Amino acid sequence: MTKGTSCRGTRHNKTHILCKRCGKRSWHLQKQRCASCGYPDAKMRQYKKDIKTIEKKELKTKIEINK
User: Fold this and answer.
1) Where do the TM regions start and end (predicted)?
2) CA contacts within 13 A on the Cβ side of 4
3) Which of 24, 30, 26 has its CA nearest to residue 16?
4) Which residues, 6+ apart, have CB-to-CB distance to 56 below 8 Å?
5) Which residue has the higher pLDDT, 29 or 1?
């Protein structure tokens, strides 16, 4: 009896390819939507939590540079 590889071995098809707008490998072929930027929506996909984490990282690097 195999453990895990038999069901995992059939996973060889691509779900995501490169997005036209952001260039990341997050364009879902069946949904026809980018998981990263939200293309083909007119506005870029962005959440408040993403903005907060980016701001925290920027603040942390500014503090390290000033030391």
Assistant:
1) none
2) 0
3) 26
4) none
5) 29
- 10 Å CB burial of residue 37 (0-12, 13-18, 19+) is buried
Left, alpha or beta for 38 (phi > 0: left; psi -120 to 50: alpha)? left
Q: Residue 38 contacts by C-beta under 8 Å, 6 or more apart in sequence? A: 44, 45
Q: Tell me: domain 13-66, CATH 2.20.25.30, correct? A: yes
Domain ranges of the chain: 13-66
58: its two tokens = 């920027």
Residue 15 pLDDT grade (very low, low, confident, very high; cuts 50, 70, 90): very high
Q: Of 15-24, 37-46, 57-66, give the lowest mean pLDDT range.
A: 57-66
